Amino acid sequence: QIHYRRLYLDPTRVDAYARSRWIAPLPELIEESLRGTDDERGYRLHIRLLAFEQIFEHPDRARVVMRFHAMVEATGGRALGERRFRFSLPTATPNAAGAVTAFANLMKQASVQLRAWLMKIASERSSFPSARSEMASGSRDDRENRDRRQTIRLS
Hints:
43% of the residues lie in helices and 32% in strands. It has three helices and five strands.
C-alpha cells in the first residue's frame, strides 16, 4: 500500500490509501530500480529501506520521502563501503496519484546518486591491488553465474 503521514494532525500516525497498491511488493520495485549493475562489477549491494512515504505538512501540500541504508560488499564478503541516503520531492497533487508520480521521479534521483556512489567506491578500490584482483575475480564468477542462470532459463 501507499503510506502517508499527516504531520499537521498527528506526526506519529501512518495511514495508507485504501484502494491504492503498488504493482509489486515495494522491496521488489525498489530493488529493480536501484540494482542494475552490481553483479557486473564484482560486488554485492545490500539496501535496507528506512522510510518510503508521502508526508503532508498541510492538507493541500505534500512531499514524498525515501531513506535507505546501502552497504557494498566484495563477492568474498569484505565490506567496501556503506552510506545512508535521503531523498524528498514535493508532489504535484496531494493524493495517491501525486505520490506515485513523485516516487517515480524520486527513484530516478536515487538511482543516479546510488550509481555515482558505487562508481566512486569502484574507482577508489581499483587503485589497491588486492581490491582490484578481488573485484576482478568476483566479476568473472558473477558472469559465469549469470550465464548459468540464462542457460537454465532457456532450457
